[in-house]
Amino acid sequence: MTIEFRIDPYPENKALNALWATAWQEAAARDFSAILSRSLAHIGAFDGMRLVGFVNVAWDGGIHAFILDTCVAPEFRRQGIATRLVEMATNVARDRGAEWLHVDFEPHLTGFYRSLVFAATEAGLIRLCD
Length: 130
Fold this sequence. Notes:
The chain has 130 residues and is α+β, with helices and mostly antiparallel strands.
């Protein structure tokens, strides 16, 4: 198996929704076009034509960028795909002028993000919908 990583591939909604359904157990279809058009970058991991991994780099239009939606299809996990996605996203964000790269994550992902040199920070969070 050879995984190909692509910067800004603009995958179709069908491909992203299929990945979301397996990676996040989220069956509700979404339209990603508005999200991707505003992103600083996004990286896709492909097994042939199939999207098997994804990360989005949102930004504030200035020096702050944000890692969002890092995911890999379950059958492709534990092969370094997520690590490569985040490493590429870090490099692209830097190359495109970001000075800070933020990421929020659940506690079980602490080791993963620490291994990619993200420092611990204090942050706040409020859920805006039920």
